[in-house]
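S., here's the first fold you wanted:
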Amino acid sequence: QVQLVESGGGLVQGGGSLKLSCAASGSVFSIDAMGWYRQAPEKERELVATITAGGRINYASSVKGRFTISRDNAKNTMYLQMNNLKPEDTAVYYCWGLVSPAAMTFPGDYWGQGTQVTVSS
């Protein structure tokens, strides 16, 4: 069983910063890619940023220049440093991982439970 657990969400004023973490645990053989998605009330879940095992990074245009994604492969942990936060960044942030739980298995999609980020104006 693979678990992804987020931490670091909270309430912050506009212009402030937060750092999210996502730790993968359990039966983790390898992680091909990890990423952050978010879902605001009454909106669809959207991609925020992704990072591959080799370090290739992709950002949504709305967060480029403000958010930084990184990962520690040795710790199976991913981070999202969020700077200059805006009220429109308010959402539940979900950790995603493309994880192989054992050798010789196809990777599958795994999700964390989500962490709330609220940015006040």
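And the second, which I think is the more interesting of the pair:
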Amino acid sequence: QVQLVESGGGLVQAGGSLRLSCAASGLPFSAYGMGWFRQVPGKEREFVAASNWSGSTNYADSVRGRFTISRDNTKHTVYLQMNSLKPEDTAVYYCAARPGIIATDANNKYWGQGTQVTVSS
């Protein structure tokens, strides 16, 4: 049974930082693309960042230069370091997994339950 468990969300002031973690179990982690998406009420889930099986990464334009995705294949964990946070980064952040490469259109195989990030102005 595959599980993705996110942690690290919370309330932070604008300009602050948070680090999200997603611990995966039940899948061959090093062969999977791992990614982060976010969603606000009334909007579609949007791509944030991905770390693919090859080690390549990609980012949404809105977070490039502020967020960094990384993974530890020995711990089966993917991280999202979020710096210079803005109120518009407020959302529920979801971890996703897909064999090989993350689909930026959200068509991914596995999802976590989400963790709330709130950035106050």
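Why I say that: The chain has a mean pLDDT of 97. The longest strand covers residues 91-99.

Talk tomorrow,
H.
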